[in-house]
Structures
1.
Amino acid sequence: MTSEPSTVDTPLKKLVGEKTAKALASHLDLHTAGDLVYHFPRRYDERGEHTDIRSLDVGEQVTVLAQVQRTAVRPMRQRRGNLLEVTVGDGSGGVLTLTFFGNQAWRERELRPGRWGLFAGKVTEFRGKRQLNGPEYQLLGDSTDGEAAASEEIEEFAGALIPVYPAAAAVPTWVIARCVRVVLDTFTPPEDPLPATVRAGRNLVGIGTALREIHRPSSKEELYRARRRLKWDEAFAVQLTLVQRKHRAASWPARPRPPKPGGLLDAFDARLPYELTPGQRDVGVEIAADLATPHPMHRLLQGEVGSGKTVVALRAMLQVVDAGGQAALLAPTEVLAAQHYRGMLDLLGPLATAGELGAADDATRVELVTGSLGAAARRRALTEVAEGRAGIVLGTHALLYEGVDFADLGLVVVDEQHRFGVEQRDALRSKADQPPHVLVMTATPIPRTVAMTVYGDLETSTLSQLPQGRSPIASHVVPAAEKPAFLDRAWRRVREEVAAGHQAYVVCPRIGEGPASEEEPPREDDNGRRPPLAVTEVAPLLAEGPLHGLRIGVLHGKLPADEKDAVMRSFADGQLDVLVATTVVEVGVDVPNATVMIVLDADRFGVSQLHQLRGRVGRGTAPGLCLLVTEAAEGSSARERLDAVASTTDGFKLAELDLEQRREGDVLGATQSGRRSHLRLLSLLRDTDLIRDARAEAITLVEEDPELDRHPALAASVAALVDEERAEYLEKG
């Protein structure tokens, strides 16, 4: 270990020793002094204030500040030796039992009533009591038992605010705090990357002060100022990245695709069997203007399930075809690609049958390109695409493969953007001579700050009205464990709907036997809960039990593509009464006759996912019903989440709730990139004003210095916080 000055690049082994550095690296991915000082506390405990033990969830890895209330030693029943039980409390009535196995008399002497400490472990439950088995702990000096907090071991906790770090079982929070103290004693902060004018104008403290105060706050006021500065750095880095991308994209050339009077689009509008909503017309005008410019459109089209995004996208595609180009729609699944294909053929009629008898004069061709096409059909489709006769091309990521060539790709429409990687998007875009126009569609409502932070380089259009004729959807929580009769009633309701000539979905979180996949959560639950219900197990039970005699089909992502399409077609044609499926039905599946959906183990789905799922019913004239079946206990966070979904169909309210319950890093690409998120403090929900201010400063700075050439320290800081991989993720959303 060294007492020489350290910088952000100094290896931790020089500062904290080889053994500790190895633990920090292997368990927390912390390698340098910079990594450690940017590993911020998750929260701060205050001596004399309580951690709310009653709010802890079973299965959670926690560190709690608590006081020993009593200890008890009793013999173990199953084996020789004693069990030490220590009851600790937080001062507000919440208690937790600590259990230690084996003969550990020294621990009983150490954990005397009155001692305060930090206790870390995984919350379990035994006979209705919450407990930590064999937790790690760090006792704090406590004047009540006459000991002074003077030892070096607990020096890092001498302040009023005790930092609690994101930790690992092998590296508890107090070890991290000790290492941070060692590093800060010799740490030379980097040059402040933030321009002095921005710092002064926004009243932000310097980077050195912020890094010291966030770890060892001298007061709550100084901690607030430190957190505000470090949040600003995160928001500013993201906004600079997005504003730069938008600035560069505005200078790219693209082929204008202006509207053509009397062309395909006008003919399509004339044959539409219904009127466009005012929202569809307004968004259509925005998109038409974008397509007519010599720079590529980058527009996000968001709208609730059933708001009519597909028709808006089809009208944009027809404008491009009228202008001599081709348009491609990328769908996340073959089921959805095939459904778009059938739907567009129905809407276009003779306008989609160029070269066939009875085709309209201006007709084009619509081609479906998926991985399951036979060799002959694939060759024919690829020829139509390559020679330009297919004006509209629909497909999955199969469109990205070698051998799919376009004559003149003018527009890329990406449906349900969050399901595609950036590399896939770029691969499709690279099939054009010049960057094509891009329209991104999502049915997941996006809170304003997420739109600003994740889609900040896209113009945004929103469809808020539902087309005429759409029916309301009622949602109810079915507490299966507390009231099994409610579940029986749910199955009777399915039979009633089928008897009335309607159809039903039953959604499960898991496919069945075999390894986990994206639509297949892990089978085993760390907290001892049973595995999630599976499609392949539930379907036969329903067929033999409550839905006996009904025509039941099964749909999930592991079925061969032709089988999936056949099942979906059978359901759409009314040849099946009930479809038991995974979330493969979440996006875009459109069967107007389906009126009821039962979601089993609903607590295992996210808020936005549940909202998407229930949008599959009520798509016709009959009202829709969504029943959320759960065994989650009343009052639990999972149950409250489901109650919130049942209480409103306002997707934007639910999107805010979803954001509250997700880590910011998930929103900003940490999970997708498989790396730690560098955005650790910024809350997209709570820091709206700060994000807005950071964007305003970013726009001003990029207009003056587009590539940040005059601000090299800032450019390096942005690159560290938002590396190129994450910058691309931000573009993708």
2.
Amino acid sequence: MKFGPIPIDAAEGAVLAHATAAGEKRFRKAHRLSAEDISMLKGAGVSRVVAAVLAPDDLGEDAAAQKIAESMTLGGIEAKPAATGRVNLHAKAAGIFTVSEAVIDAINAVDPAITIATLAQHARVEKGQMVATVKIIPFAVSSSLVAAVAEICASGEIFAVNAYRSMRVGVIQTVLPGTKPTVLDKTLRVTEARLARSGGWLTAERRTPHEIAPVAEAAIALARDNDMVVIFGASAMSDFADVVPAAIERAGGTVIRAGMPVDPGNLLVLGTLGGKRIIGAPGCARSPKENGFDWVLDRLIAGLDVTARDIAGMGVGGLLMEIPTRPQPREPLPPKSRLKVGIVLLAAGRSSRMGGPNKLMALFDGQPLVRRTAERALASKASGTIVVTGHQRERVRAALSGLDVTFADNPDFADGLSTSLKAGTAYLPEDAAGAMIVLGDMPGVASDDLDRLIDAFRRAGGNSMIRATHQGKRGNPVLLPRSLFAAIAHLEGDTGARHLVEAEGLDVIDVEIGEGASVDVDTREALEGAGGVLQD
């Protein structure tokens, strides 16, 4: 592949390195130029472009990424269609991620043009979560490099999501004089919440004196009818011959490991009894905060073996006390009815097809269109409205004087839609579950229409894209879930979020709102037909 400036006469079939305009026509980055495109560019006075010219044995970025993904042996993971040189891989079910680090390192060592990034070893993942991505850096790559990567992939399973299994768990809690029943009751609630994420359940509890014999007797009984037994000691283990490890051995079991290099979680005990796993939980496991107990419990529930050597290897990254990654990982999400949606109102465009006047200043019933749109946004169920300004920013701000909106200035508005999306979503509060993208030039969209989109988003749990339609045809506004915000920050050029939705494999829910979804006013004829009056 050759990359750099090339004469326009030699550019047919080349891939544009940057967005390029031919009059009002704008060609996006990565667009492959046709003979018709060349003619338009030449007619606009373009004499050369910066582009990539593919060699006969090159594979385009999407084809290369797709071929590499197809050569992989995966477990519990599905690959999404290639887009922008990337194939994203997602978990089919909730579970624990495992990866062959040596294979990933070998693939990434083939050539910098080919990259694979994954989650960390033994990361906890949710169903549908992205766990890895294959990315081709340039616009094309030699087929020989792709073949070399495919050969490495043939060595066996590269990574997998080990799905949680539904397990029956029995709990023993020991009691000393002064032990509060409320503490024991809370421990049960926290344990049930931990098991709930995998569909498991706590079947039985026994409370015994903090003594070896009664704990051993309870362990034998619970191991008989459950898949796992967890023991919460009233007193922390202070020796390897203390009550919990000694009770496991008294019951006829084996202590695999007592103590672990994870803090909090140092005092965990892991053993087996009658072919079942038995865990002596550290005191920190009475709290929902992440600790070493979670690391062992999650792997066992996912069907992974945990050995003494595995626990000994948890020290790097095992200091959780000062850097908790999920301080309250099991706190419930807000009820669907309270999921917050912020509106990003795009008002930065140049109205280039109007030939001069700013369409957002056109009067509808004596009111500037941008103010009418903002007032309808403010009257909806949205938690707030952010107005992205750019072209004639001061004039737009003046038209919105007195309204409770937040302004996000976009100095790069001339570079395309993506810049306004990035500017607007960056202003959304951290508790916003979604962003509704509202175009400033759609006079037929009412507050009730916005509410119908928000209601659909909440019913879907805040995980889907919601799209307004008219007679089955997609239109605007669209409502994007928070899971896309990070990807929006990396958009370029005159690009919306559509390909991000496709790449992430998100569900798309269409909501019929009527003609307003398809009526914009890009031209004088359309604006006047919708009842608007242009202003200078």
3.
Amino acid sequence: MLNLTEELKALSLKAFKSLFEQDLDENLIQIQPTRKEFEGSHTLVCFPLSRFSKLKPEQTAEAVGKFMQENAEMVSGFNVVKGFLNIVIADKVWLQIASDILNTPNFGFKAETGREVMVEYSSPNTNKPLHLGHLRNNFLGYSVAQILKANGNKVHKVQIINDRGIHICKSMVAWQKFGEGETPESANMKGDKLVGKYYVIFDQKYKTQIAEMVEAGKTKEEAEKEAPIMKEAQDMLLKWEQKDPETYELWEKMNGWVYKGFENTYKTMGVDFDKLYYESQTFSLGKEEVLRAVEEGLAYKKEDGSVWIDLTEEGLDEKLLLRKDGTSVYMTQDIGTAILRYRDFPKIEQQIYTVGNEQEYHFKVLFIILAKLGYEWAKNCYHLSYGMVDLPTGKMKSREGTVVDADDLMEDMFATAKSRTDELGKIDGFNEEEAQELYRQLGLGALKYYLLKVDPVKRMMFNPEESIDFQGNTGPFIQYVHARICAILRKAEQIGIEPKVSENLNSLEPTENNVLQLIIDFPNKIEEAANGYAPSIIANYVYEVAKAYNKFYSEVSIFNESDQDALAFRIGFSKIVAETIEKSMNLLGAEVPEKM
């Protein structure tokens, strides 16, 4: 396929050779997209070239523009803005590009490069259900995996399930003390929600005990350490690490409830994993590594038996690796997990951790420790950090039970999609099953698009009402444009019009040209999104494509075209747009309906 940027670079070099007898280094030639307010698609930056032409940047641009127009059929015009040469590509070239794209399966996606990467996302605790924050995490991690795959990588999608630790023991203690044998079946509740209920109960009882102890004369700090229910949770953690049969049995039972609940939530979300890791299976390897670090003098034991590593030379502080009672901390299991993954997948070149930005320090420390332990690959580990999600009602706190539950939010989105769709009459002719499927696609599409269109690093406000609007920068708007194009393609098929680009065509409508300029950029956008781990690049790109096509649709009457070649082109052109929208939305983990 014709690479316009490379062609224009070669043409610029030819112009300098002919006009100024200069053999330029091709790295000096900067071609960038033309700004929207000017005519043209590609812009040559002439400021750094004027010292070779011995002319002002504007004069250089003028001379090179004239040379291009006179000596290359692909250039039909130009304009100069200060030292920028804006180049207008001939319609015939755009038509050839459209034909190439139409006949290129998987346009935009790279062939496999052999590079392997691992993307971790979700990684929940088994003491509560998934919430709004997990939605951004899962959608971000899954989308990054899809984008990396489209960019030629072999991707392994994984999660670490935090299935052990003090937080898990809190739910277990509360259920043991106050549960009276309650099960998900007897409570008619998803298992993850039932266990989360007891996590909240633990916190309530713990706060009550602290208040009573403070009233009895203890300091708040003493009360927090000595509260009986907290001591019970700590004892339970110790028993668990010592494989106490009764504790282990309770742990397996309650975690089993949670996994079943998570499975349902992931299915609704439309995300999956290639391999699951469990903290209960990786923490012991982490402990072995920590003890090796002590032996080799990389870490040290304090008098109370706790193990620490000193990172002050790296500009950080001392970091706890094992508690005084020998139990693990998060860092211990993360060390074990990272090592185990490289043993399981020796060809991976990078591990990407999708975790909120409040853990930035944790991952900085983790990667330094892994490097100190002698693991060369540690330098390629990457923390895909993202900002928290707020709702108009404020921040979420899971201990207090004020979390926005992921299942509930998704159900709300489906219900909102239903009311909006029914109101606008977009389900005329649908049976009940088709209607329900449309509500699901629109609700999830709205949610995923809204959470992914924002740069991952930014903290964001999620507005459910705004996200499901059929106008503006939303998932449903893009989905509606796709459905509209599918209706056009169905009609074309019914009346026997083949999508194709005829050699007899010589000109394009301006709106067609605008869309094609965006379409040709699709491979670059995938590469850019992969390099920046940024689905927001794809999200905002596909919105621009849908918006530009919508403008074309409103200005050009497709089926009233009398020229059969022009009509066949418009069907082919529409097909290209529909495929680009579908691929882009799939990269975000969203589906696009074929009718609405």
